[in-house]
Structures are given as C-alpha cells and as structure tokens.
Amino acid sequence: MEEARQHPALTRAGQGGAAPRPPVRADSPRDIWGKMKVLGLALALVPGAALAEGVPSGLAVALYDVVVEPEAGLARFRFVAPGLRGLEFAAVEGDLPWLCDHVALPEVRDAGWTVGQIVVSLGDREVPFGQSDPEALQYFAAYEFGDGTCEEVYF
C-alpha cells in the first residue's frame, strides 16, 4: 500500500471524529478506492483525521468524506466544523473557496481524477451522504477550475 501523503493545509487531528463510514461496494460509483488513483486520500478519508488549517474564519474544520462521481464529472469534499452553529454565513463564506483552492483542488489534481466540478460542503456535524438531517446546518458551493483556481458556479 502506498504511504499516505498529506497536503500542507491538512494536519492530523488530536482526537475526535465519528466512527468510520462502512466501505463502499466495489461496483459503486463512489468506490474511489477501486476506480480512482487514491494516493494520499487515505489519511484524509479517516473521519476526524485531517484538519484544514488556515481557513479565513479560524474555525477548526475537518475533512470527513470525499465522494467522487466519475460519470457525473464531480468530486464532493465534505467538511465538518462543530463551531459552525451560531455563526452567520458571512463569517464563514470565505472558507468554502479556501477549502476548494487549498484542499480539494490539489487533491483532485494529485489523484488524477477527471472531474469538471468540485462541490464543497461545510456542516456543523457529519451527515451520511444522501441522507438529510433537519438539525444539521450545512453550506454548499460548487466550483469549476479551468483557469487553475476554484471559480464558484451557481446551482
């Protein structure tokens, strides 16, 4: 197995995080282990194992899930910031493009994924992909990156 690589924007968390998600079936489009080059995502995919440092808001933000949908040309980077609740969107608005530019886009490039769009989500708690949680606070932004940086596109 290849050694886990760590981006400069990611550091190991001390403790915490939810239990790991169950493995994805090998025939699932979400099976990035079997269908995509993973390289350093091994560290980033462990819930609570990677903190994004330097986000403009100063919140403690952890990457807890990455979902790649090759058929849709989409990579979803899902972050959690327990301190998010109680803050206005304006206080964290700059975190979303920062997370795209400093965490998601470098990972997409390094892994060699062929995607045209990155979706960054930031929530106050982990929510299983495809499920809803009425108590959860979540912000989403979609980005394209043709010019080398993340440019927001609107749903």
What does this structure look like?
The chain has 155 residues and is α+β, with helices and mostly antiparallel strands. It has one domain. It has four helices and seven strands, in the order E-H-H-E-E-E-H-H-E-E-E. A seven-stranded mixed sheet has the order 1-2-3-4-5-6-7, with helices on one face. The longest helix has 17 residues.
Topology:
Elements: E1 10-12, H1 32-35, H2 41-44, E2 50-52, E3 61-69, E4 74-80, H3 89-92, H4 95-111, E5 117-123, E6 138-144, E7 151-153
Parallel strand pairs: 4-5
Antiparallel strand pairs: 1-2, 2-3, 3-4, 5-6, 6-7
**What order do the SSEs take from the amino end to the carboxyl end, as H and E?**
EHHEEEHHEEE
Radius of gyration: 15 Å
SS class: alpha+beta
The N- to C-terminal Cα distance equals 38 Å
User: What number of structural domains do the residues give?
Assistant: 1
Estimate the global geometry from the Cα principal axes.
globular
Percent of sequence in beta strands:
25-35%
Question: How many beta strands in the DSSP annotation?
Answer: 7
Largest sheet: 7 strands, mixed
Strand order of the largest sheet: 1-2-3-4-5-6-7
Q: What is the typical, i.e. mean, pLDDT?
A: 75
Task: Summarize the amount of helix as a percent range.
Answer: 10-25%
Task: List the total number of helices.
Answer: 4
Short description:
The chain is α+β, with helices and mostly antiparallel strands. It has helices spanning 32-35, 41-44, 89-92, 95-111; strands at 10-12, 50-52, 61-69, 74-80, 117-123, 138-144, 151-153.
